[in-house]
Each structure stands twice: as C-alpha cells, then as structure tokens.
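Researcher: Good morning. I'm working through a list of sequences from a screen, and I'd like to move beyond sequence-only analysis. For each chain I'm collecting a predicted structure so we can compare shapes side by side. This is the next one on the list. No need for commentary yet; just the structure.
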Amino acid sequence: MKERKRIYIWAFASIIVLLAITLTGGSLYLMDYALAPNPERTDTAAAIRRQMKNHPEINEWWDSLRHAHAVRDTFMTMPTGERHHALYINKGVQKTALVIHGWRGCSYDFLFLAYVYERCLGYNVVLPDLHAHGLSEGKAINMGWKDRDDMMQWLQVYATDTMVVHGVSMGAATAMMLSAVKMPEKVTEVHIIEDCGYTSVWNEFVWQLKEEFGLPAFPLLTVASALTKLRYGWSFGQASALQQVRYSSYPIFFIHGDSDSFVPTEMVYRLYDAKPDKKRLWITSNTEHALSYNNHKEEYVRRIRDFIETPADKM
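Model: Good morning. Structure tokens for this chain:
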C-alpha cells in the first residue's frame, strides 16, 4: 500500500514538473517569437529598394536629397549605453517630424512619410531605428514601452518650435505611450499622429495568440509576460497606450483601417474615447493594417496638413 502511494506521489510530481517545463518552454517560445529582432534588420539597402518599388514618387526626391547631402545617418548613445541610429533630413526650418516605424521594421521603411513631411509639408524629419531594429543596438524588441524614453532622447536633440510625432503600428503605440510625457522646453507646439496602433501590448498579444494559434491568454501569455518582466524589466500589461492617452495634453489624430485584422479596428475606438480632448478620428475605408496612406494618399496628406496646422487651443 505504501509502495503504491509512493508511486502515485512520484507520478503526480512528474506530471507537475512536466507541465511546468512545457509551460515555461511554450512561454519562452512565445516571448522570443514576439520580441526577437528581425535577423535581416541591418540590410538597409533592401529596405530602400522596397521603398523605391512601392513608392516610385519618392525616387527623384531621395536622389536629390542624397546629392545635396541633405540627409545623413546619425548615431547617439542612449542612457543604457546602447548605440542607436536615425536618419535626419534637414530642411533648415523650425518644424520637425519624428516618424516612428513598426514591428521589425526600420527607419528606411518610412521614407514615404519622410517624403510627405519634407516635400509636401516643409518639415525637417527624424526617422529613428527603434531599439533592436535597423542599425540600433538591442537584443529584444520593446514594443514601444521603453522606446518612448529613446524617442524623447531624439526629440531633445532635434527639438524645434513645432514638432509632430507620427507613428505607424508599433510606432503608433510608441507615439501614444510618449504622449503623456512632457516635451522638451524648446518645443512650443506638438501634434501626435497614431496610425493603427494597439491599446496595449497585452491586448495585442491576446488577439494574436487567438488569431495565429487559437490559444487563450492564460496561462502562456501570463507566464511570458512575467518572464519578460524578469528578463527585460517590463510586462505586457504595463505597456499600455490606452493608459497613456488618458493623461495626454497634446492633440492626437487617430487613424485606423476599417478592415485591419492585425491590430483590430475596435481598438482605435477605445483609444479615442480614452483621450479627454484635442482629438480627431479617421477610419479609412477598405483598408487593412498600415495601408491607410497607400489607399488614400491625397486625403491622408490633406488630413495630416489640416491637423498639424490647427493650433492645440483651437482643436
């Protein structure tokens, strides 16, 4: 009898250990799947070729900038000691746009928005590579949360009287997470544009876990978030754009495609409702994730122009 009881105890303990190992392994896989950098992230030449192909209107503009030495690669050491990269296009004015790319992208992926701001709207442009993206150092993607501190470093270096912070997808979440932070003293006017950003990293991963793998959030996501906290110092629930916009005093323009299945469209309504005032909302028709500009170029530029030219106290 005692021997049988001992066998049952060992069998139960073995099952618990096996489940714990499986859960930890699955959670580590999930964390690495979401936060691992793009292995080809430093291939900027390929990113430029994609831009030239997808947005032929920028080809002549880009060549003229390079020939005039009006665009340069710039590097800065962050407080963490890591070296980060950005493209800087200097038009010599007191208006600057900070354009933030998305998940596993890089600065060169958004040359089309740099074209909009420099050529169409007359702004200087800063295009940073987020932590662990492009030519910026880092071992894991921060999903916008710690990136907001890095963006403030770039804003302080390139601060002008008027600033626009424009992000797409994860870059949009980064812009919203930054929106509750006080801007540099030199900056007198700030407008923030978020295009298809998520409410929080937790909510986005819940959605992706269900859509991609058909799995519930508990227990994998819960454990993956805890492991991320232990390894990188932040958790999925902590990284909330929804929470940040509640405390933002700057005007925010919310843009989202009506057919977005990567960051579900319903998220933008919650974000818009959470912002107390100084806000606009545009749901673009027949548009999937991050394609609002591609599908509505003229209207996209017109609406941005109208938004950034409207003073905050008139919003």
